[in-house]
Amino acid sequence: MKQNIVKTRLKNNQPVLGILSNSTDPTVAELCGFSGLDFYMIDGEHSPVTTAQVQDIVRACEVSGITPLARVRSNDSKLILQYLDAGVMGIMMPGVNSVAQAEALVQAVKYPPMGSRGFGPARASDYLLGTMNQGEYVEFSNEQTLVLPQIEDREAIDNLDDLLTVEGIDGFVIGPRDLAMSMGYYDGPGHDEVKRTIAGVVEKIRKAGLIAGTTAATGDQARALIDRGVLFCLNSFAGLLKSATTDFMKGRE
Length: 253
What we know:
Layout: H1 5-11, E1 16-21, H2 26-34, E2 39-43, H3 51-64, E3 67-71, H4 77-85, E4 90-93, H5 99-109, H6 134-144, E5 146-151, H7 154-158, H8 160-163, E6 171-174, H9 176-182, H10 192-207, E7 211-215, H11 219-227, E8 232-236, H12 237-249
Parallel strand pairs: 1-2, 1-8, 2-3, 3-4, 4-5, 5-6, 6-7, 7-8
InterPro entries: Aldolase/citrate-lyase_domain, HpcH-HpaI_aldolase, Pyrv/PenolPyrv_kinase-like_dom, Pyrv_kinase-like_dom_sf
Protein name: Aldolase/citrate lyase family protein
Keywords: Lyase, Metal-binding
């Protein structure tokens, strides 16, 4: 397992910017790495990406120097294990609303004694052919893996104080669109009540000493979020392509 540069930066209170991608093509991950982004989040929820494809995407990330993370579609320990064994260095889990769900996520991501992740001579451990023995690898993996539940529902907001006490969680990523819909705003998160709610969640996360994350559509938005203490900013692959295309097409106006 490689060092998780993103986690190191976050622990040093440094912001990280990356992309959430639903592409099955490893070349996209490679391009994102060579473009200088900090992390490449494989979207295993809203995409056709299979666990068989994850390994090649992770390889492309490693070649281009970008940290591979993944959003997994369900809080299934065996599914999470497949992503981690392929070399993914952190899991973002959608729809975590309760302490029990958060604890289950930690258990799935971490090896004993921190969790209950099953051990196998898989790619993440260099198939046990690398320089680390099993004990060294287990300890290193537990230190390096990121655990990032998503806040996407009113129920999660109501349970936030308890969620912030769950051991093993590095931070929380707010999903503005789903959160807005759970609040009754089906046209998007641009409403004042949603913005106030998100601001309050960010403040609570920061006061708990954890990482706050959310989406940023532009560099200006990312800068504003970072100024407010949000250290984990992600855009979508489609959104980043659209903004770059829009800017490029101004050339013919």
